[in-house]
């Protein structure tokens, strides 16, 4: 959010991708053998769902905040299963977090529905 805030101060509209929550190649736990990168820590599906990107953005700059996006760096991925394990259900969690008002978010409801998320 710091880079996004700096750009917003310069007058740019911004879409942010916070590494600690929305980089899908990040590990989902700090366990040593957990697949994924660790440079920004780890993020469980529940942490990804709960992350409030707009709240992390300075209030005076929120008119320049346009939203969030997910990203993934996959140059070290070796299988479709590896991809699926890292991406799902966090991709759906990011989508719901981006579009659902905070007051309507419900992790338990989402966790049940996420079991039906198709995998690639």
Could you describe the 3D structure shown?
The chain contains six helices and two strands. A two-stranded parallel sheet has the order 1-2. 37% of the residues lie in helices and 6% in strands. The longest helix has 10 residues. It has one domain.
Secondary-structure element sequence? Answer: HEHHEHHH
Characterize the largest beta sheet: strand count, sense, and whether it forms a barrel: 2 strands, parallel
- As residue ranges, the low-confidence spans are none
Secondary structure: number of strands? 2
**Whole-number count of domains:** 1
The helix content is: 25-40%
End-to-end distance, in Å? Answer: 30 Å
**What value does the average pLDDT take?**
92
- Give the structural class: mainly alpha
The shape, in one word, is globular
**Percent of residues in beta strands?**
5-15%
Radius of gyration: 15 Å
The DSSP helix count reads: 6
Placed side by side, the strands forming the largest sheet appear as 1-2
Could you provide a short overview of the structure?
With 120 residues, the protein is mainly alpha-helical. It has helices at residues 2-9, 19-22, 45-50, 80-87, 90-99, 107-114, and strands at 14-16, 65-68. The model has no long low-confidence stretch (mean pLDDT 92).
């Amino acid at each position: 959010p710091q880079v996004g805030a700096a750009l917003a101060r310069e007058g740019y509209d911004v879409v942010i991708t916070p590494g600690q929550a929305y980089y899908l190649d990040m590990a989902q736990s700090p366990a040593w053998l957990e697949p994924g990168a660790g440079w920004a820590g780890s993020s469980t599906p529940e942490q990804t769902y709960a992350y409030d990107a707009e709240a992390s953005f300075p209030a005076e700059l929120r008119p320049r905040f346009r939203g969030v996006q997910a990203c993934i760096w996959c140059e070290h991925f070796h299988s479709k299963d590896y991809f699926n394990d890292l991406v799902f259900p966090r991709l759906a969690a990011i989508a719901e977090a981006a579009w659902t008002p905070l007051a309507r978010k419900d992790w338990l409801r989402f966790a049940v529905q996420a079991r039906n998320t198709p995998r690639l």
